[in-house]
Design a protein that fits this description.
Elements (H helix, E strand, L loop, with lengths): L15 E4 L4 E4 L3 E7 L3 E6 L5 E3 L4 E5 L2 E10 L5 E9 L11 E4 L3 E4 L26
The protein binds zinc ion (ZN).
Length: about 140
């Protein structure tokens, strides 16, 4: 179908996630939550991601947190199914998930070499407080 338009994750970040084919998918800054997809597949919830395309028709599904309208998504480059996008959430408490994508951890690779300093691993820590990053090389 025409040319492939590939987007790149902003490099001004500590880490990013890429597809197994090497295509950029999401920045760590967009990671909202880490948990499970269904009951068994470890997954990441990203506020935004790039290089994803809808795969198949949208569908209604009842998950443990309520009813959603979902659309499966796949990598634009290699067509691997990576997870789904939340198109709509019925529950007001889950509205923050709308337009976010839930992707299988096993389908992604984390790339750390963009880090300008160690990323705070404590949840809830404010990583942007303090002085400018010090490059050690
Ligand atoms: Zn891919």
């Amino acid at each position: 179908m025409g040319r492939l338009f590939i987007e790149f994750v902003d490099e001004d970040v500590g880490a990013k996630y890429i597809c197994r084919c090497g295509c950029d998918i999401a920045s760590e800054r967009c990671l909202l939550w880490e948990g499970y997809m269904g009951s068994a597949t470890p997954a990441f919830l990203f506020r935004t991601a790039v290089n994803l395309e809808p795969s198949g028709p949208k569908r209604q599904e009842v998950l443990s947190t309520g009813r959603y309208t979902l659309s499966d998504v796949r990598c634009r480059t290699c067509c691997t199914k990576l997870g789904w996008k939340y198109l709509a959430a019925e529950s007001a408490a889950e509205k923050y998930k709308e337009n976010a994508v839930l992707l299988q951890q096993g389908a992604l690779q984390r790339i750390n070499n963009l880090a300008v300093r160690p990323v705070a691993s404590r949840p809830g820590a404010a990583p942007h407080a303090g002085a400018a990053p010090q490059l050690s090389t």
